[in-house]
Structure formats: C-alpha cells, structure tokens
Amino acid sequence: MALDDVYTEVLGEHSRNPDHKHHLSCATCALKGHNPSCGDEITLELQVEGGMVKDASFTGVGCAISQASTDIMIELIRGKSIEEARDLARKFIAMIKGEITDDEELEDLDEALALRNVSHMPARVKCAVLAWHTLDDALKKDGNPEK
Fold this sequence. Notes:
Blueprint: H1 3-16, E1 29-35, E2 40-49, E3 52-61, H2 64-77, H3 82-96, H4 103-106, H5 122-141
Antiparallel strand pairs: 1-2, 2-3
Helix pairs in contact: 1-2, 2-5, 3-5
C-alpha cells in the first residue's frame, strides 16, 4: 500500500467515524470556528484544568478534511499541556502553509501528517487548519491572554 493510500485511509476513517464528535459535559471552554468560504463550522469543547488539556470534543458540520483534521487534532492534544497543544497547532499550521517540511520536526504530529498534502490544495487549506486555529484561540483565552 502506497503512503498516499495510507493517508487517504486515515482521513477517511477519521471523517466517517470520528471518535471525538460529541458534546463534552465537563468542558471548561467552548469556541466556535467557522470557515465562511466553504461552510465548515465546528464547536471545539475543551476541559482545561491545571494548565492541561484533560479532554476535548467537537460538534458541527463540514467537509471530510475539516472533520478528520479536528478529530485527529483532539487525539493529539488530549493529556497535553496548554503549551504543548499550542505548539502542535503552530507546527500543524506551519506544515499546511508549507513553512515546515522537515520530517523530524513534524513527527510529533503523528496522524495529522496525513493532511500534509493539503498544502498543495489552496482551496482546502482553510478546511484543514480550522480546528487548529480554533484550538489556539481557545487556549489563548483560557488563562493565557499573554500568548
């Protein structure tokens, strides 16, 4: 199986059967992200305690890329510190913008690497980064206004 096929399978699985698409009853913050160019709309719900992202989930509608990207992101940030989660968001956005291409620097993005080729599809970039920008904005607001 070619690497592109593996990536396609990862994205398909996360968009068809997202593990983290539900309301989070213990959420300490929620932030809506909207992509007006294609209609993707998510609400990211986070349980942030003691500087850690204890849990996260999302609701909303969108294309396969936005839904898969959001689900993968949540998998990556659960149990991470606010700083680690924001660093992952920074790396992911830089990868999609083509600013970081070094495999070693990107390896902690794990399954999110499946979205790497979106950088070659300008119309889909906003779909891929919607959740990551929403996450960064939510974590900035959640006790970290200086960042």
